[in-house]
């Protein structure tokens, strides 16, 4: 299977090159030439890693990693992906908890998979530089996944003052081969700087960049695998397809579910839940893509004004009309409603939402009664609420216990530098640190 740029320039490349480059030379994102169609009814695989290895096999058919794929999947999916019931007055649903990895966020899946792939592919004498922009969770997951791996340097850019205190600690506590850089600007500024560095010939030649953002196809594929696994398990139990409400900012997590459905997995409707950054819902409303500056919200990891993966979604699956005609829609959830969901649901549920997961609950409750009852719905919980204690704890009126892995990171020494939001400042930082 070959991969090509969303912008239509350059050669079609194999998966290994797409993984290593991260971003296509023309600035586009890599997408597969075609999608497999799975006959999941014949599968005997049970665990997430077993399902992932079968589901992803067609994408790796011509890769040097083909024979290593089961081991890569086992290395990636070595923590639980529980599905818990939710029963409230409005109806019944389930919750897919994706925050049981080492940094307590769904980004652990994609980051660990990509790290396992790139370290196996590395054959040159020079170090790879993983350059990553983060709105909160990606950077911590990437740092954890690549920390201590030989031949790889990681540089994490995050927007100064726009991540939670515990998120910042996760970004800045590693040292060694991981450098953290605060940018005086927004996540979109960080993302623009990363993309500019990738296409700068001098910097690209000097540092041998690769990406670990969801712009890298190696992040998207394993995230698609957990939707394949969850929908397969539901179909085996009920004989029905499973619909999802998915918090999404840069659209990697949402696109992953669309990809799994297109590959034949038993997935019904898909609803994206965003925060007050309205680029995505406005595109679905008007058909016109109008990127804008992001605004800060309670769900900070989704503060994205120019979602990169919308370019992939439109290239592979078509424009607005084609998307909405296939059970795909978007709801924007403002801070007031996020806070209300965290506050009120803590009183009636045996768990607490993080601000991002709260948008999924809001997205489900916003459905009309007929649509909500016509499908089996799964709400995607993307991060542990303890990562956002300054937001969550005042709303619920009690402390939220940290999972052990997160607690361990809080005791580490933090270190980072702060730079302006431009390429020359990033180049100077790379010269100092890499």
Describe the fold and architecture.
With 434 residues, the protein is of the alpha/beta class. The chain has 19 helices and 14 strands. The strands form three sheets. It has a six-stranded mixed beta sheet with strand order 4-5-13-10-11-12. α6 links the parallel β7 and β8. It is globular. The model has no long low-confidence stretch (mean pLDDT 94).
Essential attributes:
single chain; 434 residues; alpha/beta; six-stranded mixed β-sheet; 44% helix; 17% strand
Instruction: Give the overall shape, derived from the CA principal axes.
Output: globular
How many strand units? 14
Tally of contiguous helical segments: 19
Q: Please report which band the strand proportion falls in: under 5%, 5-15%, 15-25%, 25-35%, 35-45% or over 45%.
A: 15-25%
Enumerate the strands of the largest sheet in spatial order, edge to edge or round the barrel: 4-5-13-10-11-12
Overall helicity: 40-55%
Average pLDDT metric: 94
Q: Structural class of the secondary elements? A: alpha/beta
- Report the sheet with the most strands, covering strand number, pairing sense and barrel closure: 6 strands, mixed
Runs with pLDDT <50, length 5+?
Answer: none
Distance between the termini: 34 Å
The value of Rg in angstroms is 20 Å
């Amino acid at each position: 299977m070959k991969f090509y740029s969303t912008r239509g320039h350059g050669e079609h490349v194999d998966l290994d090159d797409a993984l290593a480059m991260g971003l296509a030379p023309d600035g586009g994102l890599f997408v597969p030439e075609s999608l497999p169609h799975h006959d999941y009814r014949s599968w005997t695989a049970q665990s997430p890693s077993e399902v992932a290895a079968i589901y992803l096999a067609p994408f790796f058919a011509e890769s040097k990693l083909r024979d290593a794929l089961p081991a890569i999947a086992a290395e990636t999916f070595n923590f639980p992906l529980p599905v818990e019931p939710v029963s409230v007055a409005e109806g019944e649903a389930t919750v897919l908890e994706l925050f049981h990895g080492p940094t307590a966020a769904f980004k652990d899946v994609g980051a660990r998979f990509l790290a396992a792939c790139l370290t196996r592919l590395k054959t040159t004498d020079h170090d790879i530089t993983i350059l990553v922009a983060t709105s909160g969770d990606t950077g911590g997951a990437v740092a954890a996944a690549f920390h201590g791996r030989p031949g790889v340097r990681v540089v994490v850019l995050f927007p100064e003052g726009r991540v939670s205190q515990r998120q910042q600690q996760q970004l800045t506590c590693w040292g060694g081969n991981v450098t953290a850089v605060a940018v005086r600007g927004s996540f979109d500024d960080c993302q623009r700087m990363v993309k500019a560095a990738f296409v700068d010939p001098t910097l690209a030649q000097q540092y041998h960049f690769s990406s670990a953002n969801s712009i890298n196809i190696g992040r998207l594929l394993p995230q698609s695998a957990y939707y394949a696994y969850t929908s397969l398990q539901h179909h085996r139990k009920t004989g029905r397809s499973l619909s999802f409400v998915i918090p999404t900012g840069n659209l990697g997590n949402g696109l992953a579910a669309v990809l799994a459905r297109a590959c034949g997995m038993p997935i019904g409707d898909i609803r994206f839940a965003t925060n007050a950054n309205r680029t995505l819902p406005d595109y679905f409303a008007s058909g016109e893509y109008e990127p804008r500056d992001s605004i800060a919200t309670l769900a900070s990891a989704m503060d994205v004004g120019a979602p990169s993966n919308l370019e992939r979604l439109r290239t592979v699956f078509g424009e607005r009309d084609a998307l909405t005609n296939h059970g795909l829609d978007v709801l924007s959830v403002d801070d007031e409603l996020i806070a209300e969901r965290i506050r009120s649901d803590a009183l009636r549920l045996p768990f607490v939402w993080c601000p991002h997961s709260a948008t999924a609950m809001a997205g489900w409750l916003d459905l009309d009664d007929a649509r909500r009852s016509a499908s089996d719905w799964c709400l995607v919980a993307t991060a542990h609420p303890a990562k956002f204690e300054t937001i969550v704890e005042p709303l619920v009126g009690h402390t939220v216990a940290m999972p052990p892995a997160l607690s361990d990171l809080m005791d580490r020494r933090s270190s980072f530098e702060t730079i302006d939001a431009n390429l020359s400042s990033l180049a100077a930082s790379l010269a100092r640190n890499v």
